[in-house]
Design goal:
seven-stranded mixed sheet; 14 strands; 8 helices; YaeB-like fold; five-stranded mixed sheet; 37% helix
């Protein structure tokens, strides 16, 4: 599922409250169209509460929402802007990004950014108010201050119909790619059954994360760890809690972030029950959760 993040880092310079109000309504209307037509998170992630997110002196995001005259659009705005703080949405494994400083060029001026690089790495989308002409771009380019050749791109929704069509196309292509990767997982060996919860969570991953799971499954198969199952404690580890119920194994992915795929076998059929993360809390709870789903799959064969 694709995520949009409110871009308040580019609201700088000689702008007025009216500029903000008009731009907010434009981008909200187009975000509404994106939500209707694509698989995106039904909300806009913000740095903090709208009431404490200052867009200019003594003027907050909440103030701008309150100034929306269209009752239906205002209602949607209150609904959309409930996801915060932004830090909760980031899962950055490569800590080298914290040592870099990226800027964006607006009107010839270099504007420092903090959250936009993380949004780029997370493959998110910027919800932008077009208060500068340079923000009317399908993608925002971020330049590393100490190495101009080091650049990041953020897909950018800014409130115009042609831009919205481009963003929808990008999302549709990513979703097709994700579905293709899921079908590849289901074809690792001749007989594979996946639980619907795994399918759902797999489709929420970025294409790079999906590919990391697919690659590790295929490598394990090629090295003959997968079928017949031979846990090596590196790629595959047995994590069974109760052998009288079902044997549970985990596929251990470490890059681009730590993921755990819980699976089992029934005769020649690979059963994939649950997708977790190394940092999701008590792992025994994840294993019990996976165990239930694997038993359900087992009983359908």
């Amino acid at each position: 599922m694709e995520k949009f993040y409110f871009n308040n880092e580019c609201i700088v310079g000689a702008i007025s409250k009216n500029d903000i109000d008009i731009s907010l309504k434009k981008t909200l209307k187009q975000f509404k169209e994106v939500v209707k037509k694509t698989n995106v998170l039904n909300g806009i992630i913000t740095e903090s509460l709208p009431s404490s997110l200052e867009l200019m002196d003594s003027y907050t995001l909440l103030d701008a929402i309150e100034n929306i005259g269209d009752r239906e659009l205002k209602r949607l705005a209150f609904y959309y802007f409930q996801k915060f703080p932004i830090e909760n949405e980031f899962n950055i494994e490569d800590e080298s990004i914290f040592e870099k400083e990226f800027s964006l060029l607006l009107g010839g001026n270099s504007i420092s950014t903090f959250y936009l690089p993380f949004i780029s790495i997370e493959k998110g989308y910027s919800f932008t108010l077009q208060v500068h002409d340079d923000l009317k771009s399908h993608q925002l380019e971020l330049i590393e201050n100490n190495n101009p050749n080091d650049r990041l791109i953020v897909n950018n929704l800014y409130g115009e119909i042609d831009n919205t069509e481009v963003i929808k196309t990008i999302i549709d292509e990513i979703e097709k790619l994700k579905l293709s990767s899921l079908e590849k997982v289901k074809s690792i060996i001749d007989e594979v059954k996946t639980h619907k919860s795994f399918d759902r969570d797999f489709l929420k991953l970025s294409p790079i994360e999906q590919e990391s799971i697919l690659t590790l499954f295929n490598n394990s198969k090629g090295e003959k760890y997968l079928f017949p199952i031979k846990p090596d404690k590196d790629k595959i580890k047995e994590v069974t809690l109760d052998k009288s119920v079902i044997n549970v194994y985990e596929l251990r992915v470490f890059n681009p972030k730590s993921l755990r795929v819980y699976f089992s076998f029934k005769e020649t059929t690979l059963l994939i029950g649950f997708l977790g993360t190394k940092s999701s809390g008590n792992q025994d709870d994840d294993i019990k959760f996976a165990e239930q789903r694997l038993v359900n799959l087992y009983n359908t064969i």
